[in-house]
Amino acid sequence: MNDKPRSGDAEAQETDLQSALATPDIRIGLQLAVMEITALSASELPALDDDAQQDWSALVACAANIAPLLEEEIADNHELRNLAGALRGYAEMLSESASNPGAALASVIARVLEGTGEPVLSGASASSETIEPIPGLTGEPGFILAVDDREENRELLARYLTRSGHFVVTAPGGAEALEMLANADVDVVLLDRMMPGMDGREVLRRIKAEPKLRATPVIMISGEQDMQGIIECIEAGADDYLFKPFNPVLLQARIKAGIERKQWHDREQLYRDQLERNERFIRATFGRYLSDDIVTEILERPEGLELGGDLREVTIMMSDIRGFTTISEQLPPDRVVSMLNRYLGAMTDIIMEYGGTIDEFLGDAILAVFGAPRRHDDDPDRAARCALAMQAAMAEINTANRNDGLPELEMGIALNTGNVIAGNIGSERRSKYGFVGHAMNVTSRIEDVARGGEILIAESTRQALGAAYALGPSREVQAPGLDEPLTVHPLEQELL
Amino acid sequence: MSAVQLLLVEDNELNRDMLSRRLKRAGFEALIAEDGAKALASIESERPALVLLDMNLPVMDGWSVCRAVRAKPELAHTPIIALTAHAMAEDRDRALEAGCDDYATKPIDFPALLEKIARLLER
Hints:
The complex is a heterodimer.
Chain A: H1 10-22, H2 26-41, H3 50-71, H4 77-97, H5 102-116, E1 143-147, H6 151-163, E2 167-171, H7 174-183, E3 188-192, H8 200-209, E4 218-222, H9 227-235, E5 240-243, H10 248-286, H11 292-300, E6 310-321, H12 324-329, H13 333-353, E7 357-362, E8 365-370, H14 379-403, E9 411-426, E10 431-436, H15 438-449, E11 455-458, H16 459-464, E12 469-471, E13 475-477, E14 486-494
Chain B: E1 5-9, H1 13-25, E2 29-33, H2 36-46, E3 50-54, H3 62-71, E4 80-85, H4 89-97, E5 102-106, H5 110-122
């Protein structure tokens, strides 16, 4: 029954060849279908209706039965065709029963239909007009670029896809295709592999090499059913492939999957852009009073934006310029601003260098905190060393001031260690990361009595320091709300 | 009213399972037989409304089944659709000669098969 014409007869050989061409080895299509079913069966599928779930299980079981036969050297083509028929039947059932198959499943269904179908000859393409789209395999309309060197193919594609609701442009060659891609936001490219001049594979390579185009799905249309060619195209970045002459229903399923891929990518890009804008906003907002690395740390934590209030022990620093009000009254406003900016700029750099958080500037006064939002084991020491560095920097500032004919400045600094509430404080319209608590007021009181060039540290800070420092004679300060006077110590230098 | 009873004769298990499932989904009751002899026995005992008959069957091939059915007056009216392999034009012609009412080539175009079944059941 399966007898083939015996060779030796030229005419018979020709018939043999023709029939071989008309019915290409079913194993390739079957192999691809089985591979894709197996791959998808290993991943999680969206929930399917009962019928569809049954059909999918049957399809997977059927593929598992076929797989060993494909390994055999000598294929029983009759048996393979029978099995292909069963596989195709389940795929057809599934396409009817799955009301919402999802792109991955739709693509596998399409692959099975394609891999198990009898070849559609070019002459038969007219009959394609009557093929109804399989429900669930049509999707959103897209903007499609069809590239084929043959005019009749371009017309066929354009006609069919336009009828499916897509917007179609065509290009007769690779150069024209790239030109169009550069000027339009194409959702899917259908690319003929064999073209004179720049062939499909080269166009594919260029699309995938161009960052702006890389995400555009490319479906290769190949006249050759060779595995090697398919593999080469997929390695070069092709998203899908179709054999010529293609079945219009499969084409539609492939395009749907491509458009969905592109839309996912576009949404992802939009999301990324939003994140980037948020990050820029956060950097611009926080960057003024937090050092870059703290901002980065906040951004890297998913909860970074929710700097909710928490009670924590910090070392508070307040500094100001002695007699600044008097000094500023004797200078033109622009001179005051430039003098202040030089001073505040230098101090900001030092505070950030030591890991402090600048809470705010009040005129010439600086309020900074060590220990929030980022905590270090040695926050009190950081504050102490920072204060010493700030006082040391005054010499340089005053040299610059002298050269500019500006008055020399003297700064007092107070350090106090205590519990504060740290968090985003304010109203919805205006809020900032800040600190509240009695310890803040105490620091301010100590600041009031600090002399020019002096660093006064509270007893709480002295106890919290880890390193050894030279301290001047202690003084007592009357703090508001406290019955007992506060003991403060002038910090002179670190003992190394 | 109970579902119309069809007999599906097919030796390939995967294909048989798939087609019977599909026929049930389409609202038929599907009896099955895996060879020609069992098919003939089932036609005699169950009197299905229609037979879907694969031609290349073990024990007794489809052509013989068809001729046997047509030879028995009480069964002769049973509509039979031959299931033949694609590209086997002579199988198809022989099936019609043997008395099959219609044929469907594999892989089966199921909607077209349903139409053929409906047409034959209407007679």
